[in-house]
């Protein structure tokens, strides 16, 4: 190894160590926050009899959901725990989970800077909550993140300044965003903003509630990071009426067999709202990493060769 190569390798190892320490401290802050807000932490499931269809959603591009047969039953690897969260909110109350998700994204997504085929989201659900209450909770969470990063030693090691979080953040409909930035608004809109913003009213998965008083209007919300970093979080008030859920599954044209187990468990769901935010995307944004894979020790970037 030349002297320059050795210096680069040392710098890379220092940056990696700093980012891993930051991820660890962001996890500690996330745990502290949900604990103080009165949530029960559940352990994740990784295999389910039904999972998130991740569609129809213009932002989703998975090749397929991974399935396996085990002792006479069909299981799916978790795209997300959304369906389990609804049951958990009904049975337990305010819950949160550090949930590993496997999403087999297309190889092209590897260059977006923000896609991984395996990542962890902090996923929470609140019985009886409305969208505005969830957005306020998330904004409180980011004030804690702001305090954590302000004094964190990783930034001196990385030679970057963490962003400041100054909620409350603007709420914009996807219709307004599409008018201003085109249908693929996420990246240009993210580049145009200097603070995070909320994008509301996405037409997507059956579990996001359609406003009964305004059909075609959806009671969901995404938090978008500024400066081109893109989506941070997605969430919604949920569709909880079994008949409406059935009708939405049919309207979306998705195979009902994959949701039979969910529909059997979903008989007396309660109204709820929640969201999930990617831990790696949070760490990427605050540490100004060029790729979300840079905050993982074992990179899971679509299309890259994976050593282990
Ligand atoms: N976690 C998201 C939610 O709560 C769902 C997802 O990850 N697709 O709505």
Q: What is the terminal separation in angstroms?
A: 24 Å
Count of the separate structural domains: 1
**Which strand order do you get reading across the main beta sheet?**
1-5-6-11-10-9-8-7
Low-confidence stretches: none
Residues in helix, %: 25-40%
Average pLDDT figure:
96
- What Rg is obtained from the alpha carbons, in whole angstroms? 20 Å
Q: Which architecture does the CATH hierarchy give at level 2?
A: 2-Layer Sandwich
Architecture overview:
This protein has 308 residues and is an alpha+beta fold. It has one domain (10-295): Bira Bifunctional Protein, Domain 2 (BirA Bifunctional Protein, domain 2, 2-Layer Sandwich), CATH 3.30.930.10. The chain is 36% helix and 19% strand. It has helices at 3-36, 82-91, 131-150, 154-158, 174-181, 186-192, 242-252, 260-265, 279-287; strands at residues 40-42, 47-48, 67-70, 73-77, 95-102, 118-127, 171-173, 197-200, 220-225, 230-237, 272-278. The protein has an eight-stranded mixed β-sheet. Strands 2-4-3 form a three-stranded antiparallel β-sheet, with no helix packed on it. The two termini are 24 Å apart. The structure holds asparagine.
């Amino acid at each position: 190894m030349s002297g320059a190569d050795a210096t680069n390798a040392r710098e890379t190892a220092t940056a990696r160590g700093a980012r891993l320490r930051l991820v660890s401290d962001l996890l500690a802050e996330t745990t502290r926050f949900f604990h103080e807000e009165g949530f029960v932490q559940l352990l994740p499931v990784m295999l389910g009899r039904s999972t998130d269809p991740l569609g129809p959603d213009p932002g989703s591009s998975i090749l397929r959901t991974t399935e396996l047969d085990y002792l006479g039953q069909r299981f799916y690897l978790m795209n997300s725990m959304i369906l389990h969260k609804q049951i958990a909110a009904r049975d337990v109350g305010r819950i949160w989970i550090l949930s590993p998700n496997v999403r087999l994204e297309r190889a092209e997504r590897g260059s977006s800077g923000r896609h991984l085929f395996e990542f962890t989201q902090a996923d929470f659900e609140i019985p009886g909550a409305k969208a505005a209450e969830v957005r306020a909770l998330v904004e409180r969470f980011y004030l804690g993140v702001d305090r954590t990063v302000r004094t964190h030693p990783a930034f001196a090691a990385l030679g970057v300044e963490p962003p400041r979080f100054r909620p409350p953040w603007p709420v914009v409909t996807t219709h307004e965003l599409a008018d201003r930035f085109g249908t693929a608004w996420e990246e240009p809109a993210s580049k145009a903003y200097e603070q995070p913003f909320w994008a509301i009213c996405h037409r997507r998965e059956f579990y996001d509630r359609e406003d009964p008083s305004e059909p075609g209007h959806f009671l969901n919300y995404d938090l978008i990071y500024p400066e081109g970093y893109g989506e941070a979080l997605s969430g919604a008030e949920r569709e909880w009426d079994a008949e409406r859920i059935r009708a939405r599954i049919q309207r979306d044209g998705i195979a009902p067999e994959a949701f039979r187990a969910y529909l059997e468990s979903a008989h007396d769901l309660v109204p709820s709202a929640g969201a999930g935010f990617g831990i790696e995307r949070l760490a990427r944004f605050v540490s100004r990493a060029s790729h979300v894979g840079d905050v993982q020790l074992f990179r899971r970037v679509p299309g890259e060769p994976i050593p282990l």
